[in-house]
Amino acid sequence: MKTATRPEELTDLGNCLQEDLQSYLHESTPVQIRCRRSDKRLAIWVQHPAEATLDQDEILAFLEQTIRSQYPLVAQQARVNLLRAGEKKPYISRSLFLNLPEPETTTPFEADSVETNETEETNPPSETETPQNSDSDETQAESSHPWDQPIPEVNDEADESESEQPPSVKLRLKSSWLPLVVAGAGLSLVVFFSTLYALTRPCVMGKCTVLPEAEQLSQKSAETLQNPESGKAVLEAQEQLQEAIQLVAAIPPWSSYRRQAQQKLQVYQSQSETVADMVEALKTAARAGYESQNPPHPESKWREVQNLWRDAIAKLEQLPTDSNLQPLAKAKIKAYKTNLEEINQRLLKERKAQEHLNAAQEAARMAEVRQGIAQSLSDWQLVYATWQASMRRLKQIPQGTTPYEEAQELLALYLPNLAKARDRKTQEQISANAYNQGVQLAQLATNSQSDKQWSVALVHWRNALTYVNQVPQETYYYAKAQSLVEPYRGALKQAQNQLQLAVKMQQARRDLNQTCSGTPSICSYTLDNKMIKVRLTPAYVQMVQQRAMTARAQGDSEAHAGLVNHILTLGEALEVISDNAQLRVEVYTPEGVMIQSHNPAQ
Known about the structure:
The protein is of the alpha/beta class. It has helices at residues 7-24, 56-70, 108-122, 134-142, 156-164, 167-174, 178-199, 210-226, 231-249, 258-291, 299-317, 326-373, 377-395, 403-450, 454-469, 478-516, 538-554, 557-581, and strands spanning 32-38, 41-48, 77-84, 92-97, 523-527, 531-536, 584-588, 594-598. The protein contains 18 helices and eight strands. The longest helix has 48 residues, at 326-373. The chain has a four-stranded mixed β-sheet with strand order 1-2-3-4, with helices on both faces. A hairpin with a 2-residue loop joins strand 1 and strand 2.
């Protein structure tokens, strides 16, 4: 058992209570504890930061339970004072009556004096903060910190009698011998019960059974720790060591076994510290396992679990190499590292999932901006590609991560935008293709016209007009295509007229070739878009003249009539050619004298 009677032991007691309370609070609020002793009463001062708020009942209950279980021999009574840093007065004080199974050593008079001493020591008469008078405030302000002040020694009997007896009784008591009798009786009782208490402490009289019992518990604890099956076995071994420590610590300084007990105590405490480190590592691992349940968790939570596993591993690795806990520690380290690796993977997966989500949302915002100003095919291609990038990022977010559900919602939200961008991109592609094809065909038609290939030009113009009319409305090229419709129609009509004219002239050329042919050649001609000029050949004119002269000389009227008919037929043929070609025809002699002309019928 742990004990604290001398000042240095009271200091150790304060440090131990501070460590226990700090561990209980999980280091969320730093506390400091100091202990003082007055008679059979223990004064405990607990200081915490001024801004912190502690559960007073919880702290008091914890200290009472701790003192009962681990420090049962320090005092029969204790008074706990809660103090804020920077203040010199406790804001709450409470007496703890430990009711330990020890011989009663106080008398009714001492019980009264204890109550009086408590009042003078801590000032507040209840668990709540009470106002102080101005004199006490000034005195308290000038004094040192309550931890540095000694526990006041007061004459309990005198104070009690003076505070509770009426003035007349006080005078009679002072003037009689009754106080001396009472004091003597009380002193005798104190001496008697103190002596009885001292003689009934462990290992004071007779054979010391505490040390063998403590050693047996220590050995049992060591055997348990040789090959513990679980963390529960380690806890049982720790309890056995604590029980051994309590037994040894209960041996008082006046026992002849005190030195041996202190040596055992140091050994047991050293073993207990190692076991406590192991238990702390197991608790940390248990907390890590608890915190990692019910995934998915955000990155911050996984990082917290990661740190817990690392702490548990570090605590196990710091155990002494010669400790009998090494086999269990190595097995736990291996298992914990496996868990840590899994947590690392989950943390990495969670981080990547969050990065994918952020990138997808950023791409979606960019796509919306681009979609609002998109016009040309290249614009809509970029919008569609951006929506695709956003959707691809969302699909890369795996199940078992916190962004997964949000990613599924965003996929359903972004899908209509992706479809709209795809349809508009397709329309713009059709529009661009039709417009560009129409422009290219128009250029081919122009080139064909330059080469007088009117039939080819006519086909190109017709196809070009068809393509520009196929450009969809509400597309980037629609307005441009519409501006080309009328020019292309005019070019088409012109090509048609030119083709018709070319056909007529070609027909006229064939007819003229046929009309002018003969032996000798009847005529030659020139043909353009405005006129047909026919020139009779000298040979043909000479032949006609000779035949006319011969017929006249012979008086052959039939031959003369046939010659005239031939000349008339030539003129009619030329007029028909003029009418068909819609061109004026002029007939000239070989000398260039016009002998006939004809305008086509309108």
